[in-house]
Write a structure and sequence with these properties.
It is built from 3 helices and 5 strands, in the order ββαβαββα. With 149 residues, the chain is of the alpha/beta class.
Length: 149
């Protein structure tokens, strides 16, 4: 493989989800069907991607959006920092961000924007779980709640 190889990383939560909006023609793709709560380096395709990166075979990783890399701020930022340290630029198309500048140094603006966006995604997920717990509690109180399984 060529050192300057550009690849795409795709993650969807379940096998039933369509990956078409994240795909692009003519670029090698690493695809995971798993929860974003699983760290990138523990996902099957994520492991292969990291192995190729650590072997010096990849220069750029394209993602549809930064939340494809992880579900929480710490995980996303740690992944971006690790890739930057290995000289790999992450390009998040939805947000229009490149994590490395032309000189190969971390793009501070991209780091800040990713942090804010990842915080918002984590906040949204926590609100969703809170609403879910409240709904379950109301259903229990009214006798309508039945455990699955």
């Amino acid at each position: 493989m060529d050192k300057q190889k550009e690849v795409r990383y795709i993650r969807v939560s379940s096998g039933g989800q369509n990956i078409a909006r994240q795909e692009r023609e003519g670029i090698e793709t690493f695809t995971d069907w798993c929860s974003g709560a699983i760290p990138l380096n523990e996902r099957p395709a994520g492991i292969k991607l990291m192995q190729a990166i650590e072997a010096g075979q990849i220069s750029t990783v394209y993602v549809h959006s930064s939340d494809r890399l992880g579900r929480n701020v710490i995980d996303i930022l740690e992944t971006v920092e690790k890739l930057a340290a290995l000289g790999v630029c992450v390009v998040s198309e939805k947000e229009g961000l490149r994590t490395l500048g032309p000189d190969g140094t971390i793009n501070s603006t991209a780091r800040m924007v990713l942090g804010v966006m990842a915080s918002m995604a984590q906040f949204e997920r926590e609100l969703l779980k809170e609403r879910q717990r409240e709904g379950i509690q109301r259903a229990k109180e009214s006798g309508r709640y039945v455990l699955n399984g």
